[in-house]
Design brief:
557 residues, seven-stranded mixed beta sheet, eight-stranded mixed beta sheet, FAD/NAD(P)-binding domain, Glutaredoxin, alpha+beta, single chain
């Protein structure tokens, strides 16, 4: 039990298949009601896909576990209806500081530019995130969330999967056209299917201590190398909700995990760090090793693997849950199109391709961070300490300091779903890029760009004045909107003006959209449902948009 959190107990309800004795088939079954499985299920249910979620527990995660949720993950949580609750409860921050022994040698700002809705990071215990997602899931009529339903066997076929599930009322069978596997790093389903996960396990151990205390430290990330209170090792400090502070102590490979978790071992470490006079209470303690590894493929027939079951990284950089939530974001719209018969199954191969590309980027960064934090040779240690010493006074050395390159969204630049540029553009919003936010107005009301896009294909057209839009574009917009895979055309303008019939107009009040998207009159961006850029041009052309849409949905001949 935790002193700051009351665990919810979710009701078990006997499954309808068990009551009737009938074997039912569902379009999608998700196994695992953690942050990633719930995100995938909510995204699908919001789009109208019936989803069954199976979880073997009846509460949220024990202990705080995941802590840091990056800006991109928050934007996805906004899209599925859980972002506001997370930001309201969590601790927002942008600044991180790195110390070597007793001195600060380096700091960074995750969000140096103004005019973004969300901060660079929010710290929030994982059990809160899961609780908010469960609350959202329970609002959706298309989502059947089943607690205390444990999957004990899976049979995969070319048409789907058959699952044997155990409950307090006995066993039953359920069938799925598609199975989304989100049962975590120790996935039972991955083992049942004899699928491998390959990579590197690091020979070091870290102690997590969550402590409750009142402290006036700023809401920042603090990381120490070789501090006087824990010499020869590293320490990380984060503030979470409810005055809970996360402290990570590097222990070394020889440390006994069970011994190190005992209060008589933990408390002296914390007192050495905080001082004898500061009062605190231990909330949760764990010792972990970490690894950087992934599955070779995230799609195996009708089984789709998301989150920690597919890829695992060290906790430095907050790339685990953040990457998993982006998996769900990438998968949902593709699976919806395939289920609706509007895209071929090979579109789901692009889920695996794009998210393996992202996983490899995370694995590379995580491995480099771990090697810097825990050097394995005398030469590596000498190099690291030299970098930290130089970083105090020299900018070039600061780029080499690596206390965990923090999670950023992956730019899917090599995706076959992108339509390459044929016109000249500046800036970062290249095909495959996750969209940057911008403040706007619609109908005179302040809003944010990312709150006005997503869940569907959209063409943003930047115009000098909405009033100048001709009948040809209005007709083309109607044609695109009526297509089997609709594309909504939305105008962006420096000032709104009277909107043409049937078209929405967003006003670029601060000029941030024009700045961040290198937009000038005539510029068009085709956006995917997951808020990534599919293609862009300097002039509106229906044929180009239709061709890019076909490419983005694997419908191109």
């Amino acid at each position: 039990m935790l002193s700051t959190y009351q665990y919810p107990k979710y009701d078990y309800v006997q499954p309808p298949e068990q009551k009737s004795g009938e074997r039912k088939r569902h379009p999608v079954v998700v196994v695992g009601a953690g942050p990633v499985g719930l995100a995938a299920a909510i995204d699908l249910a919001q789009s109208g896909v019936p989803v069954v979620v199976l979880d073997d527990d009846d509460t949220v995660s024990v202990g705080s576990r995941g802590v840091c949720y990056a800006k991109r993950a928050l934007e996805i949580l906004d899209r599925i209806g859980a972002g506001d609750a997370c930001v309201a409860k969590g601790v927002s921050w942008n600044v991180g500081r790195t110390f070597f022994r007793e001195e600060e040698v380096y700091n960074f700002n995750l969000l140096p530019q103004p005019d973004h809705k969300r901060p660079g990071m929010v710290n929030l215990q994982q059990y809160y995130l899961e609780e908010f997602e469960v609350r959202r899931a329970q609002q959706l009529p298309k989502l059947d969330l089943r607690f205390r339903n444990k999957v004990v066997s899976v049979t995969s076929t070319a048409e789907g999967a058959t699952l044997q599930v155990e409950t307090p009322d006995g066993a039953y069978t359920i069938e799925a056209d598609w199975l989304v596997v989100a049962d975590g790093a120790r996935s039972g389903i991955r083992k049942m299917m004899n699928l491998e996960i390959e990579g590197k396990v690091f020979t070091d151990r870290f102690l997590i201590a969550d402590v409750v205390m009142k402290a006036e430290f700023p809401a920042e990330r603090w990381f120490w190398f070789d501090p006087p209170f824990h010499p020869g090792h590293s320490v990380l400090l984060h503030r979470q909700a409810d005055n809970v502070w996360r402290i990570d102590f590097q222990l070394g490979w020889q440390a006994d995990p069970e011994e190190e978790k005992k209060p008589e071992k933990v408390i002296p470490r914390i007192k050495a760090m905080l001082g004898d006079e500061r009062e605190f209470e231990l909330e949760w303690v764990s010792v972990y090793t970490f690894q950087c590894r992934r599955m070779n493929d995230f799609r195996h027939g009708r089984l789709l693997f998301v989150g920690d079951v597919a890829h695992q990284v060290s906790p430095f950089g907050a790339r685990g849950a953040n990457s998993g939530i982006q998996d769900a974001d990438n998968l949902g719209w593709k699976l919806k199109l395939v289920l609706d018969g509007l895209a071929p199954e090979r579109l789901l191969d692009s889920y695996s391709e794009e998210r393996i590309f992202a996983a490899d980027e995370n694995l590379l960064n995580s491995t480099r961070s771990t090697d810097f934090i825990t050097p394995k040779s005398k030469a590596s240690l000498t190099f690291r300490n030299a970098v930290l010493t130089l970083a105090r006074d020299h900018a070039f050395a600061r780029t080499l300091v690596n206390s965990g390159r923090l999670s950023v969204p992956c730019f899917l630049t090599k995706s076959r779903l992108n339509t390459p540029d044929t016109d000249a553009f500046a800036g970062d919003m290249i095909p495959g890029a996750p969209m940057d936010d911008a403040p706007l107005q619609e109908d005179g009301q302040d809003c944010w760009l990312l709150d006005r896009v997503g869940n569907r294909f959209m063409a943003l057209v930047y115009v000098e004045s909405a009033a100048a839009v001709d009948a040809a574009m209005t007709q083309a917009a109607s044609t695109l909107a009526a297509a089997p895979i609709p594309v909504e055309v939305v105008l962006l303008a420096p000032t709104a003006g009277p909107p043409p019939a049937g078209l929405r107009v967003l006003e670029d009040v601060a000029g941030r959209f024009a700045e961040r998207y290198d937009a000038r009159p005539g510029t068009v961006y085709l956006l995917r449902p997951d808020q990534h850029v599919a293609g862009r041009w300097r002039a509106f052309d229906t044929a180009r948009i239709e061709a890019a849409l076909a490419r983005a949905t694997c419908n191109a001949q």
